[in-house]
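note to self — DONT lose this again. spent like an hour looking for the file last time. sequence + predicted structure for the chain T wanted, 243 res
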Amino acid sequence: MEKPKISLVIPCYNEAENLERLVTRCEEVFSEKEIEVILVDNGSIDQTSEEITKLTAHSKVFRSIRINVNKGYGYGIHVGLTEAKGDYLGWTHADLQTDPIDVLLALNILQNQTQDKDIFIKGKRINRPFFDTIFAWGMAVFETLTLGKFLWDINAQPNIFSRKFYESLNFLPNDFSIDLFVYAAAVKKDIPIKRVPVSFPPRQAGVGSNDSIKKKIQFSIKAIKFSLKVKRKLKKVKKCPRF
C-alpha cells in the first residue's frame, strides 16, 4: 500500500475469540481503500498473538505489533500510533461493538474536504440501551463541569484526527483516560469536531471491561479519578495554528 490516508490502530487484549471476525470484517470493508490497520497485541495472555500472526500473514491491509507486558489500554494505542504512516490517525475497539465500516464514514469526510485541514472525527453512538445512555450522559455532564469544555459520548469510537494534531501532543495517558484526554485536547485547541452516527451492538465474544451495571459503576469511579489527572495535563495543552 502507498502512504495511507488513515492509519487505524486497534488494541487487542485477550481478543483471540473475536479476531477472526474482526480481520474478516476489516478485509471486507478496507480492501482497496486508503486505510491501513495496525493490530496491537497489548500484552495478551491468551492466543491473541498466534491468531494475529495466522490471520494477517498475507494481508495487505494489516500490520501488527506485539507488546509483551500490558501497560494499559492507552499505552497500546500510543505504541500503535507511533508506527502509523497515514496522514490521519486514530483508533477503535477490537470487540466488534464498533463496526470497522464506521471508519469509512471518516474517510468519506476527509476525501470530500476541499483542502487539507485540521479536523477531529468521532463516533456518536445511536440506539443504545436506556441505562447505557443515562450513564453516558451522566459522565458527559461530570466531565464538562470538571474540565470546563462541553464533552459528550466521550468513549464513542472511532477517533480520527490529523497527524499534525497528534504530533502537537506531548503526552498521552497509558490508561482508559486516553479517549477523554485526546477528545478534550481537540476541543481545547478549537479543532472542529465532526460526529458520525455509529451503532453499538452487544459484544460478540469475550468479556468486556464495561458490560455490566457493576462494571459501569466501577468504570465511572475510575473515570472521576482519570478526569482530575486529565485536567492537570490539559493545562499544558496549547492551541495550535490551523492548516
